[in-house]
Amino acid sequence: MSPIVTRFAPSPTGFLHIGGARTALFNWLYARRFGGTFLLRIEDTDRERSTQAAVDAILDGLKWLGLDWDGEAVSQFERAARHREAVEAMLATGAAYRCWASPAELDEMRETARREGKPMRYDGRWRDRDPSEAPPGVAPVIRLRAAQEGETVIDDRVQGKVTFANKDLDDLVLLRSDGNPTYMLAVVVDDHDMGVTHVIRGDDHLTNAARQTQIYRALGWETPIWAHIPLIHGADGAKLSKRHGALGVEAYRAMGYLPAALRNYLARLGWSFGDKEFFTGEELTAAFDLDAIGRSPSRFDFAKLENMNGHFMRAASDDALFESLVATLPYLPGGPAVLETLDSRKRAQLRAAIPGLKERAKTLVELLDGAAFLFAARPLALDDKARDILQKGGRAHLAALLPKLSAAEWSHEALEAAVRTYAEETGAKLGSVAQPLRAALTGRSTSPGIFDVLTVLGREESLGRIADQAGA
Prior knowledge:
The chain is mainly alpha-helical. It has 20 helices and 12 strands. It has helices spanning 18-33, 52-65, 80-93, 103-115, 183-193, 206-219, 249-254, 259-267, 281-287, 302-315, 318-328, 335-341, 344-358, 364-370, 372-375, 384-407, 412-426, 430-442, 450-457, 459-470; strands spanning 5-8, 37-42, 74-75, 96-99, 141-144, 151-156, 160-165, 173-175, 198-202, 225-229, 232-234, 298-300. The strands form 5 sheets. It has a 3-stranded parallel sheet.
């Protein structure tokens, strides 16, 4: 068995959307599972729509997801001369021919097909016609001389055996009249030259596999192994759109998802391994195979993704989660402003707050939001619930607690003991004492454990915030 080679071949006409990311992941996992090679090809033959910004976004998205490719990324456009060379070989063997059908003739074919309720098919009028009849001064397109009878069979690792009637696969264009190769040709030549053994892609390309198989045969080349994976739908079963989550990978980074969690979630969209839900990177690579991919479309569910992300955050070490948060700050809402204030003291405070914060957060956005009290300036702005707590007797508790906390050793245990003693002496419930402290220290009615907050903020800042509200 020859070494496995897979590839991801996005078009740089936009961001790396979530469906493309899953396709890249499946190709990456399969290559890594079997010690193969994972290649990246940028299919940039559409010069009007291809942009360098999109190329950069694709590369950045793959790197963030941890999907490293082997060798340099290949530009399809830069291989145009090689594509033309392959067409010349087909012309020489009669597997391709020149076609001078005019735009008006093609329009007429489309109109006829529309009236008959059939898909547009080129009628082959130049298939066997003498080139001497060509109109002067008109550059032809080059078409594949496709089989007109019989069937083209695709033996697909996911879809099974799929049969196409050759009469439905017309003589597709290989080279446009300006000499530029079409996508259908370029993909075949590139996959062959790059040694791709397995083409793993969305099942919207299944018909393309039949057409490309005919090109492979015309060139005398062996076809790769096909694996066409079902597309991703929204939670409601409809075609995935932006409202469902058809966003760029960079949007998921900005929403605070961890790459490991997103990889795990995408892998489980359409692929299963018993009842196992959560995988480490090593477990995922060791378990993945094409035979376990289902044929039905998967449903994208943000709630499941959030829950999975929360699991990965809680499972991460505090140091690793802290580093992930800091690295992602440039992309999170409000993150750049936090990054500007993140001196050594604030870094230490944020790191110390991670254990208490991560138990309550499902995303890095929520983690950062929970840490907002660390970066708030005095006097703190209070939300409505915090203001209500202080107005309803909370300030009296703060005033009474202030000297007791000032005299206490500044440790979690000593501070908790001081507050509990105060509550017992006054007959107050611990919650009714802790809530005013929380409001004064964070400006909110919810936060990590109040004694964690006190120790993370430190003596001076904590007492200052309590004093601000006790005397207000």
